[in-house]
Design brief:
4% strand, two-stranded antiparallel ribbon, Histone, subunit A, 96 residues, mainly alpha, 3 helices
Length: 96
């Protein structure tokens, strides 16, 4: 599979960017190189390949199970903060 000059210009129009003649040639070379690489990947057999991973295989979650716990109230949390106002925690200004 190769990409043509016309397709490069169409991509530029779709992306609403202006592509110079010099850039069209360079982009065409680069994209054709990428497409050749993709073609090589597509040629590789994937069935019964030990290096491939079957995404749809069932797996167990390695995370802990969700458990319902006691909720913390705002006042007890804000008491642990060095700066608080009523039930809100105040923090220093980060963005000026």
């Amino acid at each position: 599979m190769t990409i043509t000059r016309k397709e490069i210009l169409k991509l530029g129009d779709l992306a609403k960017i202006e592509i110079s003649e010099k850039d069209v040639e360079e982009l065409q070379k680069q994209l054709n190189k990428i497409l050749k690489f993709v073609d090589k990947i597509n040629e590789q057999p994937l069935i019964n390949n030990q290096n491939s991973i079957e995404v749809s295989a069932p797996h167990k979650s390695r995370l802990r199970p969700d458990e319902i716990t006691e909720n913390l109230d705002r006042l007890s949390i804000s008491k642990n903060s060095p700066n608080s106002s009523e039930s809100l925690i105040t923090v220093p200004l980060v963005i000026e």
